Every structure is written in C-alpha cells, then in structure tokens.
Amino acid sequence: PAAVAVIRRLALEKPQQLGHLAWYAAHIESYREAELSHLEGKCYLDYAGAALFCRSQLQAASAVLLDGLLANPHTSPVTASLVCSARAQVLEMFGVSSETHTLIFTSGATQALQLVGENFAWSSDSIFLYAEDSHTSSVGLRQFAKRANANCGTFALDDLQHLAKDVGRASPLEGTSVQSAEELGWETSVRTHGANLLAFPGESNFSGARADLSAIAGLRACPQRWRVLLDAAKLACSPGALDLSTCPADFVVMSFYKIFG
C-alpha cells in the first residue's frame, strides 16, 4: 500500500528520528489483517480518545469467561487470585509493585478523580491548584474544595517546575478569599499547614505538551507540602512514558480503554 511505502521512505531518509518505523512498516499490514479486520478499510484517528481493541484481546477475554467460573473475589479464591494477579501486572507495567503503591480499579479516570475529591482532607486552610490544560474531570475537583472553603487557583503547565519556589505564578480563581497571585505564596500563613492538592495532566489532551515530572519531588517538599495528583490518562498511552518508580506523585489516574481499547 502507498502508506507503507511512504513510511519506509521516511524511515530511510531520517533514520535517527524515524528509523524505528522500519519495523512498523514491515509488520503493520499483516497485523491489521490478523487483529484489526473489523476496521474494514477505515482509517482510525481517535487514539487520544480510545485505543482500538484487537481480535486476540477479545478471544483471550472470552476464554477466561467461558472456560472458568468467576465469582465474588471475597468468597472465591480463584477470582481473588486473578484480581491480585491483574493488580501485580498493572503495577509492574509502570515500574512499581504493591510494596510501594496501592492500586484501585474504578470505572475510569473520571471516577478515580472523583474518589480523590470525595476523600481528600479538604479544609479552609487548603489550597487546590490545577493546570490550565487539565481535563474537565480534574477541574471538577474544585467543587469539593469550595465546599470546604478552600482556595482554588490555576497555573500554566510550563510553570510547574517553578511552583515549588514561586507559587505566586498561579492565578487565584474568582470568588476565593485570595485576591492576588502573590497571596498564594504565604510563607508563614496557617494555610500552608492545610492539606494542599495540586493537579495536572502528564500530557495535555489539548496540545500534546508533556509536564516536567521531575518537578514533583520539589512540590512535595516545599512549604505548601503539595499532595500531587497526576492525570496520566493520555501519558500512559505511550509505552514507557510513565515510570512510577521515578515519579513520586501521591495520586495517579489513568484510563485502560485508552491503552487497551
């Protein structure tokens, strides 16, 4: 096909940047025929919304359901073992284990964010900051913060690495008790003793810009002692892009359907 020929040509012309596509070009058509026959010649471009499921996935999932008896994991050792195995495999995929991380399965990233919002230790001394590039589900957490009379603000994703030393780069939301960006930089205020939450996407759904995850350690150690919420729904779609062993975020949410279809 013409598309494969173009990929091969680009891989040869720019081996350093696109050389890895040579493998892709050699196998994509056979993979598409074997695993993605349901595309029926269509071109799928919505990978930011959801990945494509493949034939072998459906066959493997069907085999588990048809060949075994799954029951309540609290009463069925077989089912409990499968759940534990799934947790271990997911944690391993992101470079960690149950010794350092707790994995909670939800219906998706939105419910995971809601779970954080409902259970975070909000108070009137709290600050909630979220990146301007945040998904609407992350933005919705401000409703939980406002119920506790916490202050809310936004920041540009490019400023993430500077917030640990200069939280004044953030902009307070209208209606909060903070009237200027400088007031968010309290050094001695009691508000720095509240439970503060900072949320941002690992990769922007809007622009594709990626956050500097190396800033997280500094944010957790600065005077505000931020609890960091990383929305990795898009970032986790790229193989190897998220290594939790080097990313000390307190909360990380992701969407499996974006990864596996």
Q: Total helix count?
A: 10
Rg, Cα atoms, Å: 22 Å
Alpha carbon gap, first and last residue: 25 Å
Number of strands: 6
Order of helix and strand elements from N to C terminus: HHHHHHEHHEEEHEEH
Topology record:
Layout lengths: L1 H12 L1 H4 L2 H15 L19 H13 L9 H17 L15 H11 L7 E5 L4 H4 L2 H6 L3 E5 L15 E2 L24 E5 L14 H6 L5 E5 L19 E3 L2 H5 L1
Parallel strand pairs: 1-2, 1-4, 4-5, 5-6
Antiparallel strand pairs: 2-3
Helix pairs in contact: 1-3
Describe it for me?
The chain is of the alpha/beta class. Helices cover about 35% and strands about 10% of the residues. The protein contains 10 helices and 6 strands; from the N terminus they run ααααααβααβββαββα. The chain has a 6-stranded mixed beta sheet.
Question: TL;DR of this structure?
Answer:
The protein is α/β, with parallel strands linked by helices and 261 residues long. Helices cover 36% and strands 10% of the residues.
Could you name the key traits of this structure?
261 residues, alpha/beta, six-stranded mixed sheet, globular
